Amino acid sequence: MEDKPGKKILLLGNEAITRGAIEAGIDVATAYPGTPSSEIADTFSHIAKYFTKQKKEPPFYFEYSTNEKVALEIAGAASISGLRSLTCMKHVGLNVASDTLMTYLYIGTKGGHIIVSADDPSCHSSQNEQDNRYYALFSGAPMLEPSTPWEAKEMTKTGFDISEELKSPILLRTTTRLNHTRGTIELKKIQKPKKKGYFEKNPFWITTPEIAKVRHPELLKMLKNAEIISEKSPFNKIIKIGKTSDWGIVTSGVAFNYIKEAAEDLNLNVKILKLGMTHPLPNKMCSEFIKSCKNIIVVEELEPILENQFKTIAYDIGLTIKIYGKGTEHFSRLYEYNLDIVTEAFSKIFKVKNPIIKPNISNVKLPRRSPALCPGCPHRATYYAAKKAQPKGVIYPTDIGCYTLGREKPLEMADLLLCMGSNAGTAGGLAIATDDKVISFMGDSTFFHSGISPIINAVHHNHDIVVTILDNRTTAMTGHQPHPGTDFDGMGRPAKKILVEDVIKGCGVENIEIVDPNDIKTTTKAYKNALAFKGTSAVISKSPCILLENRNKRKRGEKIKIYQIDQEKCQQCKTCIGRFGCPAIYYEEDGSINIDAQQCNGCGNCATVCPFEAIYIKEEV
Amino acid sequence: MKKTNIVLTGVGGQGVITAASILGKAAVNAGFNVFVSEVHGMAQRGGSVNCTVRIGDVSGPLVPNGSADIILSTEPIEALRYIHYSNKRTKIITDISPVIPFTVATGEEKYPDIKIVFKELKKYGTLFKIDAVNHAKDAGALITKNIVMLGALAGSGALPFKSDILLKTILENVPTKFKNVNKKAFELGLKSIKK
Question: Which residue out of B106, B123, B133 would a mutagenesis test of the A interface target, given it has the greatest number of A Cβ atoms within 10 Å?
């Protein structure tokens, strides 16, 4: 929140977006957390909390909404009332919000509204790598695509002006490499927020069929105006590398950085059409560019969206120019690009030697270091108990969150995963289709996001399933954001806490087991009861995320118990390591089993599962 | 202008991302253009971490294969995991203490013989072994291991700016009560590589 114009600082792409919104005088920001977008919302939250702590009113309203659709609706209505707002989400979040988006574009807005979509080429932390530039074409939303953190800030800021000029929300499409790259940005003056909006009643806001029919042509008119802006936009520009040439490269987003460096490294003579406003495309500018070239290379991560549009434009102006890209198989539709990939493709197209040396490959076999449930994670205890209740003949649909990590050995408690909130729905389908028992898992944040309606469906249709809600009172995977089950909100203010069990009761679930998973015996019994019940059962497994719990304990000055194995008593039955599977437990070189005191988080569940009472408290730290 | 490519690797929780971020801030303080990339995925849960820092006349945020001037690792096999970034001139600076992955703990996979790991690393560049765990303990807090490694990095002479700027940036980014511990950790790291 530093208001020091001209100062240069290093910011994460996501932080730069938040800064851009603050410089533009943001009034309302909403989000549902999701990697790689989370830090945009978290930065708003940190700033708001900072003000709340000092008993001052934050300069903007911020909330972690229950899901992306709700987030878009909250911010959308604020924008319709004339305020500047921003909504951010990961790419798959826009699928959740898409119903709202499609019609929102019909009615448009008044105050500027930026919708940030954080795409994830290479699926670094996602279930797919869908290209959300299609949402711009699909919904008609104008789209901006930054290449660097600096540009992300500038585009966010300018995006509000464009949005207000067009009376339309704008999509700002980013990718992981932009979101999670730190770059230098220059601070500019912070504009004062408006604070209060005004909703002007107008029948055009009500999208009944007859209004929709009138609004659709308005959307197309808006896109015509957007094209004029796109033609003049400083974000669409031609950059010359080397001498004047008839080779043209078309690109957008992060790929631009690789092209520039690769072209310089290879001493190529090319001109790059760098598109920052990619929807609608500046048709005239693109046509002129095509006319000035004999060969064109389109470099874009994921889908051939620019490439196909350039082929169309070339056809429309009657040119059969050679267009290299995905069609010529020089570039892939898969995964994120890098300098190696772009340099290799260019060296093939320009028939020059690739200066990047072949990577060294070591023959030493390295053990995998894949993420696992943390030592002391209460989900492990829940999984252990569920498995103990019925070891065989059970299918485990899971959901998006830390608990997906339960797929790893030795627990192997994840069999089917689609998207946020899918567990109970797929559980119902599996119960209908198979003779197996079905136990599904979802976290509390996922429950509030989109996990409730499938439970209502299961109860109404009497699906014979056990739905587990892993209630750890936080959104752990994305960095411990609050949700409707916590007693504070994203601005650090006290908030009404909604209990999972109250909602479950309201959904009509008759058999509800509420357990503390650290009491493994009772939890196992609860699963046995739930499995025996004919119809929909719920197991609510309540225990806070161990990372948060230990952090809070340290803050309160409380100690954490660290466990150790008594080698005399240990019979090497391997229950702790081979069945329970805590990552803090390991084999010594002599084959004995031990606990790594550095990693132990002190849950003590290994001591419970040990049949020989060989595990005891070593010390309190 | 010259490009300096630094690859930082280690295990989630060892402060690799923090170290990369501080290094980037130091480069900005020294007046350089810089890109810091977190290639971390779900690293918070004990996974392998990889960050890249590019300083100077660069546009791409990621270090290309075979282009690292430095591989700075807080764990030996994590240096080897990212050896594709190395060339003959690469300085490989690694902490000597293994962190046993979960797959090894359960007996599913094996942690390679540490001597073989170091021998292998020597094949691909100039190896510097740092006992960062003990230096950090000497400094007063194990958690400063990443700062010991930054000290070693400064001591390697590969940075295009003075080590004072890096130290100053570190101290700007840690709470007041931990300034002395971090200063000591940095200095121990600096000395350890000069020996």
Answer: B106
